[in-house]
Batch of 2 targets.
Target 1
Amino acid sequence: AHDVKTVGRLGGGDRDGKMSEIKKKIRSILPGGDWNPLYDTSYLPPESSDVVIVGGGVLGLSVAYWLKKLEKPRGAIRVLVVERDHTYSRASTVLSVGGIRQQFSVPENVQLSLFSIDFLRNINEYLAVADDPPLDIQFNPSGYLLLASEKGAAIMENNVKVQRQEGAKVCLMSPEQLRNKFPWINTEGVALASYGMEHEGWFDPWCLLQGLRRKVQSMGVLFCRGEVTRFVSSSNLMKTASGEEVNLKRIHEVHVKIDQSLEYQPVECAIVINAAGAWSGQVAELAGIGKGPPGTLQGTKLPVELRKRYVYLWHCPQGPGLETPFVIDPSGTYFRREGLGHNYLGGCSPTEEEEPDPGNLEVDHDFFQDRVWPPLAQRVPAFETLKVRSAWAGYYDYNTFDQNGVVGPHPLVINMYFATGFSGHGLQQAPAVGRAVAEMVLEGHFQTINLSSFLFSRFYSGEKVQEHNII
Amino acid sequence: MAAPKASLHLVAPVWNGGTRGISGLSRVVAPEGNQKKGRSLLQFLADRFYDVEALRDHLLRKRVSKVHQKNRPFNHINQRYGPYVAGAYFILKQGGAVRFQGREWIRPNQRGHFSLDFLKLQAVPVEAVDASGCAINYQGLDSLLALKELQSLWLQRCPHVDDWCLSRLHPLASSLQELSLAGCPRVSERGLACLHHLWNLRRLDISDLPAVSSPGLTRILVEEMLPSCEVLGADWAQDLKLGPEEQPRDTAGPTPA
């Protein structure tokens, strides 16, 4: 039996709740509020959008930024960014070590990186939002130091020639010069080193992400917290100029499923951009890419998959000082200085046999003991006494074909554009790739940097764009 | 009686990231915008009227382009008179002072005018540049980097000299002996890390850099990085603060009977 007094109190509490509901309704009806007489649907994406970007990491936001910046007239294109992890807890962008370098062997990579560093230097002119404080990405211009053994010395010289041609400021150093400049290095086994003097270093990727997010929101890009579960597309059988029949597909709708709910919203779209990072392969499968007999263009999958990489943070009080660049050993181990307190970040790429299971982001500390520490201690004797402070793991959007990015439209699913597969270089090339994809979408061809060798069709024709690194 | 033990604690210097809009200093951005109290009339109007917003953006862009204009390279002077004269003209136009080898300092007067006598010194290298307070930035350094025999460079209180500019100074490594960065609001310890290219440096002034997070520690690390250079700047003990005096213990020291 209910106590009369309790019912009264319950009724009183309910009345307060009702008052706030009524106030909310009145506020939403007044001009400036979004009035929905039935129920609040602000968490759902719009019913139609010109461009849907799958993935809200640095590449997706960069594409959104450049689309809004290069569009004519202003406000012409409605862009929706769909990101299922609003805390970015597993996003490759924020788990990255944050380095940027021009020391690549493929000229397009050098150009992408050069534009990106220009973007970062002028970030407050590009991403300025009135009323908000300027961004400080905490860039350390300390440069990259790549070491090469006897075998890789010739390749390194070639690479430096290509880099210098594109405008990178890289210089070659002999082991003796290395010992003079960086006395803490043990140059045994090193035949040549290339050192980036300018435009190279590391920065804070979270700041770049937040800056991009803030700017694209001010430009009118819509964000949705959900997951893309289905593409609704239609096919057309067309004949090419040479007479062979081709089945072209066009995506009409994207089904966005809301987080932790069964509800989904079909979003009509004209263009879909796949910037889902390590999960791009799964998104491409949803669109039907790779569903066909193997060896044909229909049967060519997007070869991007998740790969887990570890990063370790250690403390070494006798370690190298303020001048430490981002050092990459010929064995593939790398490290860089972090802050002023003799802390260092580093890691190593595992070989194909040792690839860890990418199901979770757990860190394997034995990997550090067995694979990272011995080459480190051999290269920098001061690292024989170090103490690991913390470690984390992140995903690479690893392109199993040639470890370089995929940019541009798919030849059969004609309105899906890729901006993914950079296998660890996505962050440092994101501004330039965003601009390239936006140019492709708006103009139909690359205007500033020619990335035709990064198109999807190379997976079918077999032309690899491979980095000739000594790593 | 036990002497009171004064304990030293390392106290992080507290300073605020200035948030005076675009023109202020900064740290990491707050993603959802700042909750500002006391918003100015211009911001209030700009939120409601497109015209005011466009006007404000125009004023901002004009301010930025003024700095760019000041830092333009004087290519025609370079072609006609050579890099030394072009560099000197650039500095004098910005309001700084120049000294050629074996000559006196040339400075502009109160109104910014300076005599053009130095135009005939085409083959005389520039030895010292005092660009204190000038609006020199990354682009403007082009003119300075052409002065191959520059020995002393003073960039005190330059508002646009930042870490990127410091990373550009390495071509002057063989001649530069004195560098002063005192009071530059945008220089941080990350830019100071790339001064190790300047192996000939003998005097470095890094006092009063507000963007450096721990001045004392930074000075120690810079001294280790440049062993043959005299580093003037933050006193290493300035970060340390005397802690509260500890209570004298009863059992410590002889108690008077």
Target 2
Amino acid sequence: MKGKGKAAQQPQEKDCPLQFPDLTIVNHEEECKRYTAVLGRPTTESISIEELDPLQTDLELLLASVGRRLKLLESEIQILQNWQDKKDIKTPLIKGKVQVEPPSSNSAKRGKFAASTPDDRPTKKFKDSSGKSAAPPATVSSPVARAKTKIPQVKGHDGDSVHSPAELPRVVKNECVDRFWQAMEAYSRPVTEEDIKYLEEQIRKLEDEESLYLKIPPLGRHYREVWAEEDLLEEMTDGNKVNDKRRHTNHSNHTNSTATTNGTNGTTDASSLLKKAENSMEDSPYGPLTQRIVSALLEENIMTPMDDIITDFGENVEEASAISPRMLAKQLNIGNPAALERRIQRELEEQGILEPEDDEVEDDPNDEVLTELKQAQANLKPLIQWKIRHLKDLLKNAKDQQARQQPWKKFEECDAKLHEEYRKLNVARQKKKPNLKKERESVKKVLKEWWSVYQAVDDSYDQ
Amino acid sequence: MGRSKGKSQDTGGGGGGPSGPSSSSLPNNRASSLSPAPVISASSSTTSAQADTKIKDLKKELFGLIHNIQEERDRGQHNIVNIDKTHERMQQEARVTPYYKNKLRGLYNTAMQDAEAEAELLRKALDRITEIKSLKESKRQDSKQPKPIMRRGVLMTLLQQNATTLPLWVSKPGEKPPPLCGAVPADNNYVCNKNDKIAARVKSVDGEENWILASVVTFNSQTNKYEVDDIDAEEGKERHSISRRRIVPLPIYRANPETDPEALFPKGTLVLALYPQTTCFYRGLVDEPPKNHEDDYSVLFEDTSYPSGYSPPLMVAQRYVIACKEDKKK
């Protein structure tokens, strides 16, 4: 008999959920003095009153230990029962669960056997649940030890169908853990090349866009013109549609082609129409400079010189005023009014009368849109800078992290190797091979290597 | 002190009961029915003698039970040893075969049965003890009219003894601790019995309200009032008549932390606890609940004379720690 029983939890066996509690009973000789004394008396004697109290204490001690023993036994029996029950009923469930989990080749599990999934798949056929000896150790626990958990799980499993029932409570239990780590994956997964590329592209884009956003686009055509053009175009297309409908009923093929050509030429037609409209509004096709010079040469502001010119040519005077300036210009054969305007401008500039106009459009301080635009750009600039700076930082960190992951990768590979070796050892053991020396040696070797890699990882973390 | 040496002597009265010959000289187990009392002096009531006989019988029973218990334990010991051996063997092997599992199951079941039987006997024995004690107590209460004026120290020792010998409640598997076990509160319609110990909020002569340790005398169900006696039997502090709302019954059982931790006040709970060396209850916080069945609570009493507002932790037995309903601070 040992001393006062405490429920010493012995380390869990790799396959057995039983806890093997220490069920030893109280040594009443040591602990319950009064009790022992009473026991020692022959039946002829009895208990004295003052002994009642210490006796009560002793009995209570015994009762407490019995109570504890009962509790432990009950829990053990429960575990055993669950184990038995789950053996047959729940195997398909386990199987399904197992195949759902991705192969955990980089599990950080420090179990005692390999986690290599290709080996496990065939062994996870739990059809013959009684064939525990035949099946090589299967990683029934690979669904349990999740690939993403960096927390090493000490529970290794010498798995076969016998132990899969025990998996069910554990698998169920670990579902929450799995879900948690799945959620965390986005934050804690290792940095990949893709991430780095993405970051670099973002930086580049930003730097390009900088110029894009900060440029002030030149003043385009005035919106009045653009809108007028667009409106006209719209009306044209509408009209075409109506025409098409009408002509469609008349079955004329050529109208279709006309319609299409109309459509394609729509914009150009519209712009030309507008131009015509605009031009028809103008009195004269001549540029402003030309007009100014000519008017300066005139004595009066009436357009009489034109009339004179016309009469010089001996044209029909009565009809002169009726002729539009455009027709006049044609008759006068003056040529391109725009070119004339440009020539005059050049001459004046050479003479020094007229200062060369800036080709640039001067920023009109009254242009509110422009000021707004400038302001927005001013706001945007520091933001872009900030963003670029941070992206660069992030990129640097990502690259650092990548470097740090290297030892981890190595470690995981080594881990897998170790599992493999141990699995081989177990297979050999099961086959009852007489000499396990070779396997043991290989395990030892890999173990040494593993240990050194582990140290490296550990050190790298401490930095 | 109330407890007397010797076998069945009364403290105050009873005269010459069958105190001379020790009860152990009786060879047989007498039935616990009342046997004709031997010649007793007229002053002692028949009940006292009956109680004595009863006590004797109970003691006899107890004795027998104890022997039975030990037999049971010895028997169970064998099984436990088997279980241990099986454990060892199982742990040496790499795997758990069904053979072992079945064997273990069988062994566990047997062990459970043994343990249950042992527990039964133990409980019976403890019940006997409680009966004996209560008989003695009631005998003492009835017979002595004038209460012996106990010195303070004597009273305190008595209180302490009461606390340690409060019966322990060990739940069977699946059982829940009953009301008035440790921290489990009493039922709503619980009526205290005579001589039950309670905490009562009474107004003293100088107008102060205090929670005192008292003993129940009677209960009047019509007026819902209790008559209580202050156990500190000084003059002027004796009998009070108060409504049941001012009464909190003290626990009848101690809770076993190993089997029923939920029947203990957890750390940080506000409780009313008996201040050591006094007979008054004061507010405090539980610093540490008891760890095994013999332990006491460690309580921090509210005390404005300390800078933190609380006294250093003081030990108070389970019996004298009750839940505190939020009252205005004293």
